[in-house]
From TrEMBL:
Chief localisation class: membrane
Name under which the protein is recorded: Xylose transport system permease protein XylH
GO terms for cellular component: plasma membrane
Keyword Lyase: no
Record localization: Cell membrane
A GO molecular function held by the record: transmembrane transporter activity
Task performed by this protein: Part of the binding-protein-dependent transport system for D-xylose. Probably responsible for the translocation of the substrate across the membrane.
Transmembrane segments: 41-61, 73-92, 99-132, 138-158, 194-211, 231-250, 257-275, 305-324, 345-374
Organism: Pseudonocardia petroleophila
Amino acid sequence: MTTTAPQQKDPVGGDAPAAALHTGTSDIRALITRNLRQSGIYIAFVAIVALFAILTGGVSLSPGNITNIVLQYSYILVLAIGMVIVIVAGHIDLSVGSVVALTGAVSAVLVIGQGLPWWVGVLAALAVGLAVGAWHGFWAAYVGIPAFIVTLAGMLLFRGLTLRVLDNISLSPFPAEYQLVASGFLNGLLGGDGYDVFTLLIGALAVAGYAVSGFRTRVARVRYLQPVESFPLFVTRVVLVGSVVMAFAWQLAHARGLPLVLIILSVLVLAYGVVTKRTIFGRQVYAIGGNLNAATLSGVKVRAVNFWIFVNMGLLSAVAGIIYSSRSNGSQPAAGTMFELDAIAAAFIGGAAVTGGVGTVVGAMVGGLIMAVMSNGMQLMGVDQSVQSMVKGLVLLLAVAFDVYNKRRAGAAR
């Protein structure tokens, strides 16, 4: 004789097994504990934002400064998207800063030096990024050289190639159309008295999309008997996230409107969020990083997946190179220096594991924003550059130490 789990009404409006509902305090605590790494990142981000708001007398949260953070650190966030995928697969890419410089240099030579249309420079930069990614992918995936060595060689190779392309000189300025990639804004489309209504509308749509996506995910988890937080806790989370997003949109609306680069970044985050969570390729990346032998035995084409991981990293490095050259209105031989370290730090601070198999695009974005807020806040306070480097280094070390501590504790529990 078989029995079924008792049914009870789930707060989402349907019947679900009672085992799937977590409304008690102990269950909620267990759920939060299982997601401590990711939850801790969000808490740390809010705490850092609040700290620098106090230390700078509110200047860090002013409309103009928030817009400046978006413009100044967008290319690092683009790199972080690709880097977290590389790290999840168990690799590392040390060449992205040099690729940013090379793609920007190619674009500058064609657009500024040869007088070609701005879009030719964009397409050429993307093509170079794809070629660089294929180069790295070939050596790492098919020849079998560790990615650390391949991309270290690439860092030197493509920095030297940048110097050769630019002939050791800087090129500027780009035409106005090219500059709009990183410095353009959408405002005044729907009017507004002292603020941009269109920016607020986009913010509201983003909140609505987040709420609907979260609700659908909750329903699916209940259906498959997976643990979920109580419905009041779910609503509270949506309200808090929505409040932060709308406050951010409100500040942008009172500055210059919606930056075009933020639209580019948002599209990339949404697209790669879907790729990593809802596609076969994304699941294979996590499988390779989590257990290479098991992935191979499961039929995953490891070499092909690793190849396309680096092709993707090259493409996103080119996007970052276009944004950076547009932002700086030119190309310099030293462009992109240390960008790879900022991208790696963003991924690790955002929850990626040093051993691979763990990490999310959203987490990398939060990690990148933590670095951005810290750098911007210390600059506003006039902190010496040497101190800024030390602080960021300590934050990265603590983030990785926290990851190692969690793994040891999980191993001891088994």
